[in-house]
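Researcher: Next entry in the queue.
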Amino acid sequence: MAVTVDRMPRRALHPFHAFLLAGAVPLFLGALLGDITYFRSYQIQWSNFASWLIAGALVFAGFALLWAVIDLFRADHHRGRPLIYVLLLLATWVLGFLNALIHARDAWGIMPTALVLSVIVAVLACAATWVGFSNFRVGGAA
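Model: Structure for this entry, 142 residues:
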């Protein structure tokens, strides 16, 4: 029986970094649901809800991005997908910021651009979270 040793173990996310990363996803998804509801009902308050959820998600995603960039430059080795993770977070934050600017316009003028951007940002946030958490080890020795 051969035993393999992983000489460069993957680093897990710091718990606060994981909290920031995981906090952005439900807020972006909530904004997407708010935009879908606004698209179907044209009740202006749903647009306001989506706008506030995007603002909160940008705070979480911004601090997670800052932490990821610092970890990228501090890392002794670049094993795994840290650069892809940072680029996904950056794309999420930039498109989320553009989505926030779109939501700042008149409620009647934001559709369908706001809905399309909300879908893209929610997918990017989920992908960034998936890549960020994929560095965790699962199970025993393999």
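Model: The mean pLDDT is 88.
Researcher: Noted, moving on.
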